[in-house]
Design brief:
The complex is a heterodimer of chains A (287) and B (322). By secondary structure, chain A is mainly alpha-helical. Chain A has 11 helices and 2 strands. In chain A, 72% of the residues lie in helices and 2% in strands. Chain A has a two-stranded antiparallel sheet with strand order 1-2. The relative contact order of chain A is 0.22. Chain B is 70% helix and 2% strand. A two-stranded antiparallel sheet of chain B has the order 1-4. Chain B has a two-stranded antiparallel ribbon with strand order 2-3. The relative contact order of chain B is 0.19. The chains are: A mainly alpha (287), B mainly alpha (322). At the A-B interface, helix 4, helix 9 and helix 11 of A face helix 5, helix 10 and helix 12 of B.
């Protein structure tokens, strides 16, 4: 039973990353009509920024949790201003190709300087050790990742679904021209949205740094799984992305326990099954 | 919806004549390679990728469907051909057929699944499916995991052509490439190809005219996947191995890059693109991961400033369809 709970926890952690990443993808897709292939690369950048902050600037984990998403978010906004904005009105496969190119550049540069091996990032002192919950031993850091991710996901949901700014955002997703006519600066909102989505990915990167080590290719394979998550959940609903992300993480964790051979493939197999039964995805609108 | 390619160009008898002239020039140039001292291995490799890119282009350039998982057909056909040649000791022609058949079956299955979603989802689904296959091949015993299938016997094609001789192999690969290319050329200019282009331009209108667009897209997917498998089977004879790199997502990305550089939706573009990218990899092999950075930069530059690609720009300049 211990092993089952341990795998469930691993599943919840992976689910946190799926949720944070697919949430960002959905938000970006809503505003920019682009599937951000560079999402895995910015996730990796988040972890590296945390690593640099600690080792070059002596800035600890807690500040990195705040600063890394901001730094990477600004990097994202520069990308949006200099490149992505020129794709407005073009077939959206160009957005995929451009961001794929950006991902190759970023990952290639990091691979040149850091190889393919992992760099260690220590768990902050406050989150070391573990708790005995009676039925299992819970490492504090892992519990923290799940809880914190959940809070960030729900905060994002609140921001988009319940605030004034979110209302503008949703309106601009539906009809940007009309929203502009009301005097709202939609291009600036698009830039900020891209920064927000990228920042969420970077945050996931910082959270994963102490668990998975910091590697140039840490996001490259992850992003493909996240794509499958997005296909399963559909990108129409924010809450849908969050729930699907966590649920698939848990299913993956359970698979690791019951049938480890399929743990790499279970999300893709589920995607196939969902496509066969309900082609629009679980929560998605028809594309 | 903006279009992918420049369609102000006429498809007239003159255009057809231009294309046939270009084809003859290309065939003659390629046939003369063994007499020029150019390293034939390089050209053979480029030809396999050129066929792969042409097959990919059939789907994206004429069907408007961006597959981000075409490596799965290349890799699957490669593994099956390699297995047939090495373990079952089949002659080369049957080995190639096994590979093509495998890609055909795979493209029916994956096509049936992925055609269900449109646009951007289609790309993500094909990518995810190819990643699924990657993990299956990583674990399946017959692929030998990380080692791949190595030391594949080349044998005698039809019992006559000794494929261990580089020149003979070169011409066999060349004939295979030209046959595949002509088939794609024929498909593009057939009534089927015209309907495909109509669907790419305006799917609702095509539906309203009574075309079952999903069936057309499915058929395009199967044709594209099967031809990509043909490229994979030919590649086995050139590389004499089948490995995981052929199924990896980065391979799918390279195919996209080749087609983009040459020109999406142009007939000769993917061939030019394949030669450019393979040559680049050859010459920059010593620079390690900078090759990835350069490839990424080419993606960015192409998408931002050079969307027609090399051949697309030339065709646009001369107002010809190439």
């Amino acid at each position: 039973m211990q092993a089952l709970y341990a795998q469930l926890l691993v599943g919840l952690i992976n689910g946190s990353f799926y949720a944070l990443l697919s949430l960002g993808l959905a938000v970006i897709f809503g505003m920019l009509n682009i599937i951000n292939f560079a999402h895995g690369a910015v996730y990796m950048m988040g972890a590296f920024v945390a690593y640099f902050l600690l080792n070059l600037g002596g800035i600890n984990y807690w500040w990195a949790l705040l600063l890394a998403p901001i730094i990477v978010g600004i990097f994202g906004m520069i990308l949006e201003r200099t490149m992505l904005q020129w794709l407005t009105g073009l077939d959206h496969l160009y957005g995929l190709l451009l961001t794929f190119g950006i991902a190759l550049i970023v990952q290639g540069v990091f691979q040149n300087y850091f190889g393919s091996s992992g760099l260690p990032y220590a768990i902050p002192d406050q989150l070391r050790g573990g708790m005995n919950l009676g039925f299992m031993f819970l490492p504090v850091y892992r519990g923290w990742v799940v809880v914190f991710s959940l809070v960030v996901c729900l905060a994002t949901w609140f921001l988009i679904e319940k605030t004034q700014l979110g209302a503008y955002l949703r309106a601009a997703t539906e009809n940007p021209t009309l929203v502009r006519a009301f005097g709202i600066n939609v291009p600036r909102m698009i830039t900020l949205t891209y920064g927000l989505g990228v920042g969420l990915a970077a945050l996931a990167g910082v959270l994963s740094a102490p668990i998975n080590q910091v590697r140039p290719l840490m996001g490259a394979d992850l992003i493909i799984v996240v794509f499958a998550v997005v296909v399963i959940g559909g990108m129409g609903s924010i809450m849908g992305s969050i729930i699907t992300g966590f649920a698939l993480g848990v299913i993956e964790g359970l698979t690791k326990y019951f049938y480890p051979e399929a743990s790499n493939t279970v999300v893709f197999v589920l995607m196939v099954l969902v496509l066969l039964v309900k082609p629009t995805g679980l929560t998605g609108r028809a594309a | 919806m903006t279009t992918l390619t420049d369609d102000t160009l006429p498809t007239t008898p003159r255009a057809m004549r231009d294309e046939m002239t270009m084809f003859v020039v290309m065939a003659l140039l390629l046939a003369s390679v063994p007499f020029t001292g150019v390293y034939p291995f390089f050209v053979m490799q480029a030809l396999c990728f050129a066929l792969l890119a042409c097959a990919f282009n059939l789907l994206v350039g004429y069907g408007g469907l961006l597959s981000f998982g075409h490596a799965m057909f290349l890799g699957t056909a490669g593994y099956c051909s390699a297995h047939a040649l090495k373990v079952w000791a089949l002659p080369p022609e049957l080995g190639i057929l096994v590979g093509i058949a495998a890609a055909f079956v795979l493209s029916i299955i994956t096509g049936y699944i992925s055609i269900r979603r449109q646009g951007i989802y289609f790309s993500m689904i094909t990518l995810a499916l190819s990643q699924l296959l990657y993990f299956i091949y990583l674990q399946a015993p017959f692929t030998h995991g990380e080692d791949g299938i190595q030391g594949i016997p080349q044998g005698r094609m039809f019992g006559v052509f000794d494929l261990s001789k580089p020149t003979v192999l070169y011409y066999v690969v060349l004939v295979g490439f030209l046959a595949g290319f002509l088939l794609i050329f024929r498909i593009i200019n057939s009534p089927f190809g015209e309907v495909l282009k109509a669907i790419r331009e305006n799917e609702p209108r095509a539906i309203s005219l009574g075309y079952r667009t999903d069936q057309y897209k499915f058929l395009a997917f199967v044709l594209s996947g099967t031809l990509a498998g043909f490229a994979g089977a030919l590649k086995v004879f050139v590389a004499q191995n089948a490995s995981l790199t052929d199924v990896h997502w980065s391979m799918s990305g390279e195919v996209v890059l080749m087609t983009l550089v040459g020109g999406l939706g142009t007939i000769f573009g993917p061939v030019v693109g394949a030669f450019v990218i393979i040559a680049m990899q050859q010459y920059l092999a010593g620079f390690g991961q900078w090759v990835t950075v350069i490839q990424g930069s080419i993606f960015v530059v192409c998408v931002l400033t050079f969307r027609r690609g090399v051949i697309g720009e030339i065709a646009h300049y001369f107002r010809r369809s190439l």
